[in-house]
Amino acid sequence: MKVVIKKTGINGEGIGYIDRLPVFVAGALVDEEVDIRVVERKKRYAIGEVNRIIKKSKDRIQPKCRMQHICGGCPLMIARYPRQLEYKKDVLKQSLIKYAQVNPRKIQNVLPSADIFGYRNQFKMPCAMEENRLGSGLFMPNSNYFIDIRRCFVHEDELEKMRARIMDILNADGYLGYDHHQKSGIRNLVVRGFDNRYQCTIITGEDELLPQTIDKLMRLPGMYSLWQSIHTIKKTPEIFGPKMIFLAGEKLLPLHLDGLDLEISPRSFFQLNTKQAIQLYRTIASMISGNHEFIVEAYSGIGAISLYLKDKAKEIIGIESIKDAVVNANRNAKKNGCAHVSFVCDDAANKLVYLSKKRTIDVLVVDPPRSGLDDAMLECILRSKIKEIVYVSCNAATLGKNLAVLQSCYHVEKVVPIDMFPHTPHVETVTLLRRKERRK
After folding, report:
1. Best exposed site among 203, 366, 394, 427 by fewest CB in 10 Å?
2. Where among 256, 290, 319 does a domain terminate?
3. pTM of full prediction above 0.90
4. Which UniProt keyword terms apply here (predicted)?
């Protein structure tokens, strides 16, 4: 069956039409004519697999990674990078027009990544046995089939070298993959690094790591912080278990970022592309003009955005529900001499209701998870008198749905997409909203 690909889907797949029914085709690019096999047909859409490409896009290239078609993590690696940026802008535009009727002229071009390979500063990879060897890799999409990934091209080069050395030590000391029945073995490996200093967390069952293993790991060049996490819950999306054990080195990993000195704990979130994180923070700061009395950041994590905005207000409060991150953030505020910046552990909507009743909030910065702002948060914002909102989003669909609600009280001023993850369909978006003036 022949299909012409008309646009790109939110997961990086091509979308064509058969008798007006949309067909999602992984590995196909816009303007390509492909011969496909329909593998699943629903009432409102179908899924197809490419048999052969009849007419290739001029933007198609050979992917750098030989696992690209199996892994599924970098579906856009088959396209030239400038074209990837156009795809991402188009997907963002589709979502914002579909859900919120945002004027497309307010959506700027995607700011490109400084590096398109070797940009990720962290990985969280499952571990399993492969040919009698403990490997780190991934499970194929929608399956339990494990693939040992020996080289990932979007990870920083030194981070990949550290992964290989850690796996060599674990194998030399006889560690096995996780067994749910025995609640024993290595489940995941998480490593994050800045400036050739690395924080490693080994997620296990109810095991104790051998002293000799800990000693060997700490002797690795650049190993700075070593942790273990006990995780025996069978079905959960969480990587880390509820129990964290500090093993050796320093508890926190330092990061110098565009004039800020930060420290990060293993479970704390930080942007995966360090260079683009700077571009993201600069973009947020550029949207906040003048000096304000009071800024609030919701979902503040380790406090990087609030601290980056330290010169924008006389007082800044960050709200975060994860206790570890709040402790981390307040340490970072003290480390950077920011007595006027503080962080509280609370539900974002609950605390924002309290603050908006007590104070006039000049600017609210929100950086929610992929699920976006919940109903309680949206209702709180609409009832408040917050003048401006800077909305940082990693999900175009939830951003569009949230903007549709917020536009009853706010104008969308501008939308700036930033490419944090080359070769993936994801794009970070910063949107400035300004409260509408009430008619007298």
Report:
1. 394
2. 256
3. yes
4. Methyltransferase, S-adenosyl-L-methionine, Transferase
